[in-house]
Amino acid sequence: MTTVEAPASHLRENPFELAKQQLRKVADAFEIDANLVEVLSECKKAVTVSIPTRMDDGAVQVFQGYRVTHNIARGPSKGGIRYHPDVTLDEVKALAMWMTWKSALMGIPFGGAKGGVVCNPKALSRDELERMTRRFTSEIINEIGPEKDIPAPDVGTDASVMAWIFDTYSMNKGHSVLGVVTGKPIEIGGSLGREEATARGAQFCVRAAMRKRDIRPNGATVAIQGFGNVGSFLAQFMVDDGARVIALSDSSGGVYNRDGIDVAAAFAHKGETGVLAGLRGAEAISNEDLLLLECDVLAPCALEQVIHEGNAPEVKARIVCEGANGPTTPAADEILEDAGVLVLPDILANAGGVVVSYFEWVQGLQEYFWKESEVNAKLNDIVTRAFNETWAEHECRGLSMRLSAYGIAVERVAEATTTRGLYP
Ligand code: GLU
Asked: Could you give all domains of the chain from N- to C-terminal order, each with its CATH number?
């Protein structure tokens, strides 16, 4: 039997410390009660489990898994499950905290949670992934539930993983529980539009930001880091809006063409070869250099802390759209702010996913499913309203978009907490 331990993290700084630092800054600017800040700085619950899994060769590997609930003042906790070799408990805690703010900013009735398993999903067979996911689900079965805590996809997980979680939970309960997880395949209670939702939300934010900055979408230049669920669809949507996608990347590197990349060909090439590298009609570019390209919109859509103190002064984009969670460190944030870059913060720019997760949860509870056009229209309403609320705060108080968005969110959670009162 072998045990898989967390490798040294890819993160430069402890993400939970950064998230708490961010909260303190917001609390100062918005004069949030110090007692409340104490409460909100911690996660309500963090569960660590070991996940013994039979591998295809007959050996047993023990993976480490986490499920963290940050806060439930505004509703059941909600947030994805990440499968990545570098996942740490503090990273999951930071991500859980950001989910609390994200749901609050969107005005949807959820708290925040996140989960993670330390593994490399690309190195596991489908059968191994299924066995590991089912065992993980059974280890956290008392933590999750439709009124309690509702997982969803995140980095390294997809609709199939959600199907296994849904099935394992349901088999244990003796009946189908649609509301236990979102991001499910359509045929078993998923929502139309959920897969593309995070990128759609980002598209709505980029459109609104371009209007504010007098940038015409037609011909605008866009560089996107990450070609997973967020980056790939965002590239497509930017092309649909008439923009020129000049660079794309995945974990193995990037491709660049100043005249515009053929995004449909990039999808086909990635489908055939598994990587973007080698795409015809584009030259190679590193993930680091992609971030420094001159462009109208830079969208980091992969992992945290890619824009940091070291490279922030060299970022030349006019708008940064945070498709990923936490891609900009607080130090980098200040540098971008001083340079006049318009940063669309993660809890605004990538909230489309959790918004349509909310729709999926509602549809599942009602067993009544909506048309895709209805899903997208309702998503647009919610994200655009949140953008406008954030913009108004930014204009009125002269605060950055991040501070404005986080301030609105933290105030909402603080208000719910105060209204409910401290138990007992
Ligand atoms: N993992 C996504 C996020 O970071 C989606 C969470 C959800 O739908 O619950 O927002």
From this structure: 2-7+45-178 (3.40.50.10860), 197-344 (3.40.50.720)
